[in-house]
Predict the structure.
Amino acid sequence: MASKRVLRRLVLAAIVAAGGGCTAAYKTDIMRKDVLTDAQEAIASAELSHGDLTVAGSVDRPDTTYEPGQPITLRVQTNKSAYVAIFRVLANGETTLVFPNRGHRKAALAGNSPLTVPAADDAVKIAADKPGIVLFAFIASTTGTAWPFTRAPDDGSDFADLGGTTRNIAKDLLGALQGGGAHETAATYLTVRIAGRGLL
């Protein structure tokens, strides 16, 4: 009888410990799941990759979490020489082409040569905005004729504002990157979390 009580207590303790472990994991972002809005999903679900070209993107904080107003530094690398574009998509769909930009207008990138955006000497800044999840889309192609690689920043701005109709943007991207020829394309996506009261 006593052994059954001990066994029950051990099982209960294990359940409590497991539950506490999950809570701790969520609090330390080990099991973090950033949920995209429908507007962000329109970009993230676009089938843009074709061929052996790969592109990798990262940010300067391992936990990918920022405070409002804090600068965000991106890093991008391709496995072969290519042209690169980086899009920032906010939760409401507001999309900005953050690279190329006023400080770095050339989209060409040598293979296996990481590029920091913005570079230390660039006169532009990518900053965290309101609390929420921000999607960064890293797009690459072996040809630089598509509009993401040639689009100039808006007048008086560091970046090109593409508006908030992400379904149309995704459709334009597909059309521009699949425009015939033997070029290769690649895309990868990264979410960052802007901390604050507006984020659950």
Q: What stands out?
A: Confidence is low (pLDDT under 50) at residues 10-29. The longest strand covers residues 132-141. Residues 1-31 form one domain. The beta strands are 55-59, 65-66, 74-78, 82-89, 95-99, 108-109, 115-117, 132-141, 160-163, 185-194.
